[in-house]
Fold these 4 entries.
Entry 1:
Amino acid sequence: MIVFKNVSKIYHQNGRESIALDKVTFKIQPNEFVSVVGRSGAGKSTIIRLLTGEEKPSKGQVFFGSYEVDKLKSSELPEFRRNIGVVFQDFRLLEKKTAFENVSFVLEVEGVPQQEINEIVPQVLNLVGLKDKMFRLPAELSGGERQRVAIARAMINRPEVIIADEPTGNLDPLNKWEVIKLLTKINELGSTILLATHDKEIINSLGQRVITLSDGQVIKDEASGKFIV
């Protein structure tokens, strides 16, 4: 489903070169749960930006199914991105909209009829355990609940892949594990999960595939990996 083929990303700033990724190659199959780990600056966020088409590689190719992501035009990106749901560390919710409205907003932008929205959104919020709080504002929710709203929003289009970028970074231990359980459940329902994290405890408990980055290079790729950096 996802292929990075000899991908390098070099940034130029103030006459200096900064290598974010250096000849990175890996494949992710449909329905896998893959964690990308590494210290800050290892290249995790760069991989995400290249996969979503936010940036283009300096060298190499990025594929997502039948798409060659680095060749997509700006006008083609919105349709392509419907295949990917992204969950961020800082939630990125609209503070003046309820949980229901934050999730439904994605469908409204795409022109989905209101009747269909009214059917789909409660189902997804129920899946993440928030059906009874769908009309609460983000300020009325705990950090874990806000992250679950963000996950519901990422899932609403039934994307093939969910990218979770440090989704537990702002959460306490109890909510952290609730979010990981939810991602595992979504994976079992058929979505591919790409988890970017530096949380050693989570990685070592998952028992799933781990791609380890260091200084922009893949130094380890194990089917049932541990956090080693």
Note: Residues 29-57+74-222 form a domain with the Rossmann fold fold (CATH 3.40.50.300).
Entry 2:
Amino acid sequence: MSKLKPPFGPQRRGVSRPTTAHAGQQPERGPRLPAGYSAANSNTRINMPQPFSLVGAKAGLPDPQFALNMGLNSDRQRSVMVSRLREQGIEDERVLAAMQAVPRHAFVDQGLASRAYEDAALPIGYGQTISQPWVVAHMLSVICRDRQPVRVLEVGAGCGYQAAVLAHFVREVYAIERVRGLYEQARDNLARAGSRGRVRLSFGDGMAGLPHAVPFDGIVVSAAGVKIPESLLDQLAVGARLIAPEGTVNQKLILIERVGVASWRRSELENVRFVPLRPGTQN
């Protein structure tokens, strides 16, 4: 087993760094990309000058008739989505049950709610997106494989959907968002979905993590940096996993497991495309 010290920089394209004592051994790989998946489907940047607004003008709720109509169909649509995820190789029943339970249409703009259960990223404002269902399910399945994490951090809460999914099977979910408007959107969405009490949502610099809440059994990063921040690696418990996209133009999904007090194991998974991981906050 190689003992690597952070930070981990991006590797040259086509070159895999051995992650065990056997030189040249290929890193652990996740399941193959589902048919029809493309890099642009994950968490693609979409330039939009104004954020979407999920809430009604004054009441703070979607139009009642729309909510009724969507509610009548959403259970069936979620079942179709979950069946599709199974066909795409998602096997973790905890993740599948959570995605069946969480109303994804409640986390996107009302005008896009009819597309909420497609396997596609959708804009949520501020140049950001809600990741496609397969990406959410895959990342959560990887960090939870063969274990039951108790405390998980999400970096880049966005509209709050992924945190809500996590909260269905993880006892302590922490989420951090750097864009003030998205933080407020996630806070409201989680409250309407009944998940706010189970998610500890913070406004702040995700690259710094949450030092006051360490250690974490899992960390999910929803934006791509040139390298994975050392501060996040240090906040993992021994035996815990972090999953994050890494790179600029050519991005890879990276799995890192902390295997000792001062050692981490790194594996490269799929090619992906996420928005950039940025420092600081945006009001």
Note: The first strand starts at residue 122 and ends at 125.
Entry 3:
Amino acid sequence: MKKVLLAILPILLLTACDSPEYRIQGDVVVRCHWTFSFGTLYDTLPGADPETFVPVTDWLGHDSERVYFMHYLVPGADVSTLEAKRYPLFCDKNDYYYETKPMHVADMASFKTIKWYSDDFWAKDSRYAYYDSVRIEGADVRSFKVIDHWLARDKYHVYMDGLILPDADPATFKTIKYTAYSRDKSHVWHFDELLVGADPATFEVMKNTKYCRDKSHVWFYFDGTLLVGADPATFEVLGDTDYSRDKSHIWYKGELIPDADYETFVADYESFAHDKYGYFTCALRDNDTDEPDSEEPAVDEPEPEPEPE
């Protein structure tokens, strides 16, 4: 058994893939990479010629006719002028590419990236601005500035993910630092969703970042759900849990718990609470059920007695 293990060990060492790389395996080209969930994976490059394949980086390669991003074919990319930039950006003599998507750069000579955020970036040339693979039609290049990861502006518009954020005023638009919220002089947004009726002058993300409020409303932070009827003046989070209350109501995250006994309600831990009538998990009492009542079991009725002849 020991000899068998010793014989297998060199094979395992040869086939292990601690970092991403391209390999020739017989008559195919593969890209191997290691994952926490599945260990080493081997992805075949469709149509790649192993005799002429050349890796440019561990995420970009080509054979004599085709270009590959990771293991995906990049249609139309020019092999002879291929150049890797920063993952996942590369170019040829004709265009820049984000992953497998052509960016349709108008002026290759003046193209430059403005700001990188992990795998995402903003860029511009003499005619257009770009977000990843999105060319932003109509952007004013001279006044174009990046605000943060998803946001930029010029003198005419605010852009999120490369698209115009409707009704946003670029002169007064600001993000609320370290949150998913932003505002201008007239509006408040959660990502690109407008919070209808929100007052930008009094809007704030509460210190625990689980909720937001203005002078008249409260919202659940993570999805912008309005807590209908919540009183912002008396609203508070109950300890380090997902429960909250105002002067009259109890909520779990953005959901009202209508049957909670206000006077005796205690938030125990994250998604668990109790009152004098019992215990809650999330917004449900432990004896509640979302399942419909089961039908009454069928009862065999006695057969009628035969009539006398």
Note: Confidence is low (pLDDT under 50) at residues 1-14, 291-296.
Entry 4:
Amino acid sequence: MIASRAGRATGWRALLVLGLALTCAAAGAADVAAPVLGYRVVATYPHDVGAFTQGLLLHDGALYESLGGYGESRLRRVELASGRVLAERALDRRLFAEGLALADGRLYQLTWRAGVGFVYDAQTFAPLGRFRYPGEGWGLTFDGQALVLSDGTATLRFLDPVRLTEVRRVEVRDGERPVPMLNELEWIEGEVWANVWQTDRIARIDPRSGTVVAWIDLGGLLPLPYRRPDTDVLNGIAWDAQQRRVLVTGKRWPKLFAIELPPR
């Protein structure tokens, strides 16, 4: 823990300098337009090592998680401090669960290739309905007005949460380059945050233009001693508005991390 405000400022300044240096080094080779920001881990929590995390959110102090895999897909409510499962609902074995969002007391859960999503009561997990969408479902979040859906491309779709029909879409770009493989999504203070599949990076996206305004590189976040042969990629972003921190984990990770970012 940093003992003083001056110490904290110095620590953030060092992280910002490091992030800018990494950005400059990468710009020539990869044409990266958005800066890479630093972060620090402020807490670590247990996470079910068997959970193939597809969607993650925090509500009333509890984690809600969508787990994927044929025959393994389910919806969960989890106690953050202990990782204990508080409630669970399994999906049909023929379905592969994906992204998860909360809006007006309802949970919305996508599936990968079936083109169908499900609506549940957030407290009881009782089914309230289903909806259809073309193409694949990957990530999902709620921006206060619309559900935001990713499908593995560089496109984000915005859906009316009542009619569950598309109202607009935007292509995500870093400078002039499209950013495909957008996966799990989270709405954080006016931005869409997106895991980029098969990478350790999170894109912070302006939802109006689709521009990537910053990157967060979480490479090395999970220490090597915790990695197993079946440990998969970084995936899972949840915003803790009360403590102003971001919770992140991965598919079959034994840990969930709370991180803080430099002040804007």
Note: The first helix runs from residue 5 to 30.
